[in-house]
Write a structure and sequence with these properties.
The complex is a heterodimer of chains A (392) and B (275).
Chain A (H helix, E strand, L loop, with lengths): L1 H16 L11 E5 L8 E8 L6 E7 L3 E7 L5 E6 L12 E3 L2 E7 L5 E8 L4 E12 L1 E6 L4 E5 L6 E7 L6 E8 L5 H9 L8 E4 L6 E7 L2 E7 L5 E6 L5 E10 L2 E8 L2 E9 L5 E3 L6 E3 L8 E8 L2 E9 L5 E6 L5 E7 L5 E8 L5 E9 L3 E9 L1 H8 L3
Chain B lengths: L1 H21 L9 E18 L4 E2 L12 E2 L6 E12 L4 E5 L2 E17 L4 E25 L5 E24 L12 E2 L3 E2 L7 E14 L4 E11 L17 H4 L5 E16 L5
Antiparallel strand pairs in B: 1-4, 1-13, 3-6, 4-5, 4-6, 5-7, 6-7, 7-8, 8-9, 8-10, 8-11, 11-12, 12-13
Classes of the chains: A mainly beta (392), B mainly beta (275).
Chain lengths: 392, 275
């Protein structure tokens, strides 16, 4: 009996010591970046991987259209921030990496023309690169690997401009234009000052690089317009005046797209939809699955993620109940997983990127204590993402 | 004030000595003891790394958002369970006391904003109260110093702890004075936080006590120090916000191991004298 008691005791000791070791290299986090000034309101715009180290650069607007840059490390820990002088305002919500240099595009508040600034991470400052006199009120920037493209909406022009910028980033070498046919100045000013509706402007190119898709004001509506490489119009999916249409789109190649659109008070997703780049049609009639819990006034983000070597389309949107809803679809358009992120406070997704380590980093605006708009980052770790797509 | 305590302890020691010398020794070798145990445990988090949802910037009022933890004796919880032991020799035995234990720990933090729009300074102070319910299964080696009826002992070993339920509640007031009165403060709901924990933990246990043996029963009073070898919060679930309190109350828990001091009273009976 003594032997049995001894063996049982030894067995229990060994069991206690047998603990599983997990991979600790990828841990999730949630961070909110403090500012004691309660009057200050931040609107995060874009996040991009640092060109120098494992950290990230965050671009935000504050006090209306003023600009702040912030550097965080790979764990979301604050490194430094920089409030740009008020001679630079209205940063477009897209930081761009051109030949391992980070740039931001903004505007001179007096001249109203566009400024391109290089971010000097070493000296924690920005370096003026060029002034583009002919581009007024920039609203979006996109780098397709060859050239920088800018979208602008000059006040009172009733036109949207598309500008291809030289590789030296100092001159506009090609221009396209979209006629709006109506005055959108009030909408535009509220957009750039962050005092009203944020319009989902974007420029994207197809994987084949044979076409551009732009979202902007066009022909009495907020529409999705296809342009060829000469920035000439080829087709359009019109929104329902200014009250509905495509609010996010991800080109997948072969004329297929993942889209999100708004009709009335509802958001609709289609992770795989064929669009005709020469069509003239209504965006609100595009086939898509509605999701009543999503807040139609909040942005939707669509990104391609690679998890366990498989590509997925991630749709991220804010719900009406103060959460973020993340949905993953496979390449056939089948929904694979869905999850909710955050709870109980107003939260808005501003940008998201997949890190080089297979994680998902989400840039958000969170309203702390229900009062103060602050910049937040949320990282889903690689195991988090893998568990989402693993069949239960 | 200390004199009555001193006199009491002195009398206890004298009576122990008298009893020990005046009675015959108790035969314990090859005996099983089964019984029940109950007591209190006091818990203290030992911080390994601090985490904060809120990141300080040059524009912050606070230099950091470190939590201020309460002390050991503010974190009391109950213990009740069973006692099993087997005496290999008259002085050496193996003891297991599987039991339910409640561990509690509290911490406070605060935030400050200057807000001229809503009327000046905004202060928020939070008291976070956590409770973890465990099943613990210790295996201890006990060495008695005497084979007589009164027998002081020391014991050491490991304990497998399984956290089966954990919850937290937050109290808030609008003054930063390192005090939140739970009677007047605004409280949150009680939220379950079990999923935030490393559900299985191993504790190193060591302690001492004294037993009193009779032929029909035995009583022991013991004190143990227990230290969790695994951290209490699962690092993969630290930010998962199962409570719904992370963003709302700017709460994320630190990396810590729990240190517990237990005081336990055990009543046991010998089942058979010899196998």
């Amino acid at each position: 009996m003594k032997r049995i008691a001894f063996v049982c005791s030894l067995g229990l000791f060994l069991l206690l010591l047998a603990c599983e070791k997990k991979d600790m290299t990828s841990l999730p986090f949630v961070k909110i970046y403090d500012d004691q000034n309660g009057n200050r309101s931040f609107t995060p715009l874009s996040i991009i991987k640092s060109s120098q180290d494992y950290g990230y650069i965050v671009l935000s607007a504050f006090d209306g259209w003023r600009i702040q840059l912030m550097k965080i490390d790979k764990d979301g820990v604050f490194s430094w921030n920089l409030e740009l002088p008020d001679s630079y305002v209205n940063a477009v919500p897209s930081l761009v990496n051109i030949n391992e240099q980070l740039y931001l595009v903004c505007m001179d508040p007096i001249e109203l023309n566009t400024r391109i600034l290089r971010i000097d991470e070493t000296n924690q400052t920005v370096v003026p690169v060029s002034t583009l006199e002919e581009v007024s009120y920039p609203v979006h920037a996109y780098y397709n690997g060859n050239h920088l493209y800018l979208m602008s909406c000059p006040l009172s022009s009733q036109m949207m401009g598309l500008h291809e910028v030289s590789t030296a980033l100092d001159t506009v070498i090609r221009v396209g234009a979209l006629g709006i046919g109506m005055n959108v100045d009030e909408h535009l000013l509220k957009h750039v000052m962050h005092t009203g509706k944020q319009w989902p402007f974007f420029i994207k190119s197809t994987p084949e690089k044979d076409r551009f898709v732009v979202n902007g004001f066009y022909n009495y509506s907020f529409s999705t317009v296809f342009l060829d490489n000469s920035l000439q119009f080829t087709g359009v999916y019109n929104g329902a005046a200014l009250n509905g249409g495509i609010n996010q789109l991800e080109p997948l190649g072969s004329n297929e797209y993942g889209i999100s659109r708004v009709s009335g008070d509802y958001v609709f997703f289609n992770p795989k939809l064929s669009l005709d780049p020469t069509a003239v049609s209504m965006a609100t009639s595009l086939e898509a699955q509605g999701d009543a819990e999503l807040n139609h006034e909040m942005p939707v983000l669509i990104k391609e993620l690679t998890i366990k070597g498989t590509k997925y389309r991630a749709f991220l949107a804010s719900t009406r109940s103060n959460q973020l809803s993340l949905k993953l679809y496979d390449e056939t358009g089948k929904k694979i997983a869905g999850t909710y992120i955050s709870k109980n406070i107003p939260i808005k997704a501003s940008d998201m990127i997949q890190t080089p380590y297979g994680e998902l980093l989400i840039l958000t605006q969170v309203r702390v204590m229900g009062s103060y708009n602050r910049i937040g980052t949320i990282k889903l770790s690689k195991p988090n993402l893998e568990s989402l797509v693993t069949p239960k | 004030m200390k004199l009555p305590w001193f006199v009491g302890i002195l009398m206890l020691l004298i009576s122990v000595q008298v009893e020990a010398q005046s009675r015959k020794h108790q035969y314990r070798k090859d005996r099983y003891f089964f019984g029940v145990t109950m007591g209190s445990g006091f818990t203290q988090p030992i911080i390994q790394e601090r985490f904060s949802l809120m990141e300080t910037t040059p524009q912050s009022a606070n230099e950091n958002f470190d939590k201020k933890y309460g002390n050991l004796f503010q974190h009391g919880g109950g213990i009740y369970g069973l006692h099993f032991s087997f005496a290999f020799t008259k002085l050496f035995s193996v003891v297991s006391q599987p039991c339910f234990q409640t561990q509690r720990y509290n911490y406070m933090n605060n935030y400050h904003w200057s807000d001229t729009i809503t009327g000046g300074e905004v202060y928020k102070e939070f008291l976070h109260r956590q409770k973890i319910n465990n099943i613990r299964i210790p295996i201890l080696a006990r060495m008695d110093f005497s084979a007589r009826r009164w027998s002081p002992f020391i014991q050491a070993g490991l304990s497998a702890d399984i956290a089966y339920f954990a919850s937290k509640q937050i109290y808030t007031d609008n003054q930063v004075d390192r005090s939140v009165d739970r009677k007047t403060a605004v409280s949150s709901n009680v939220s379950e936080m079990t999923a935030h924990l490393n559900r299985f933990n191993v504790y190193a246990v060591g302690g001492a006590g004294i037993s009193y043996y009779r032929e029909q029963f035995a009583i022991s009073l013991s004190g143990n120090i227990r230290y969790g070898l695994r951290t209490t919060i699962d690092p993969f679930e630290r930010y998962s916000d199962y409570t719904g309190m992370a963003s709302e109350y700017l709460d994320v828990q630190d990396k810590f191991n729990l240190l517990t001091m237990d005081i336990m009273l055990t009543l046991m009976v010998p089942i058979h004298k010899k196998w």
